[in-house]
Amino acid sequence: MQAWYVPYAQAIAQDLVKTDPNYILAYEVLSQAALKQQRYQDAIVLLQKLFTLDKQHSQRTAFFLGMAYYFSHDYDQSLLYFQQVSDAEYVYDAQRYMITVYYKQGMYEEMMDGFRRLLHDKKTVATDYILLYDIVFYEPYREGGSGTGGADAQSRFTLLQKYAIPVLIPYIDSCKKTILAT
Predict the structure, then answer these.
(1) What is the distance between the alpha carbons of residues 178 and 174, in angstroms, rounded to a whole number?
(2) Which in 58, 99, 144, 171 has the greatest CB count within 10 A?
(3) Within 13 Å and on the Cβ side, how many CA atoms surround 83?
(4) Backbone torsion region of residue 106, taken as left when φ is above 0, otherwise alpha when ψ lies between -120 and 50, otherwise beta
(5) Contact 102, 108 (CB under 8 A)
(6) What are phi and psi of 124, to 5 degrees?
(7) Which range is least confidently modeled, 27-41, 58-72, 99-113, 158-172?
(8) Rounded to 5 degrees, what are φ and ψ at 9?
(9) Considering only CA atoms, which of 49, 45, 36, 40 is closest in space to residue 10?
(10) Rounded-to-integer distance, Cα 131 and Cα 118, Å
């Protein structure tokens, strides 16, 4: 939905909901407009209504509910909805969001399991590796941190040693094979 016609689409959709409170397309338009305008609480209400009305597209609705909760910083609820997504169109993005939620909540084992699943798939994109690098290698030094000492540094070392290296080694090996084959 392009920004210039969001207000027009919203006005039409709001009129349609008044006429037919179960009109699915109107809730899709209103929820997408709320997401685009960063009105996440409004989007959640609209998406929950859509979730009950439209069982045929529940995967898509679950994904967008996960996003709305994520951007509202309600990470537990975002995980609840992202974990329901299995549709091929949304599952990889849902996994990427879940990885960042696990990271934000200090759930490093779950985060690295998410990376492991994601990075072993053919749908992997370059930014997946950038996200892994950012979380594991760069984040400890962000905002002037030394990356050394303290419990956080120990948990980062454990994260790297126990989880990141086993995920990265197969990727590095596949890169070597690709380079040597050319």
Answers:
(1) 6
(2) 99
(3) 9
(4) left
(5) yes
(6) -65, 140
(7) 158-172
(8) -65, -40
(9) 36
(10) 12
- Residues across the chain: 182
pTM of the shown model: 0.75
Nearest to 81 by CA among 60, 111, 96, 50: 60
Give the closest residue to 72 by CA, choosing from 89, 97, 99, 108: 97
In this predicted model, what pLDDT tens digit does every residue of 107-145 receive, in sequence order? 888 888 888 787 777 666 767 767 776 776 666 565 455
User: Residues 57-107: pLDDT tens digits?
Assistant: 899 999 999 999 999 999 999 999 999 999 888 998 999 899 989 988 888
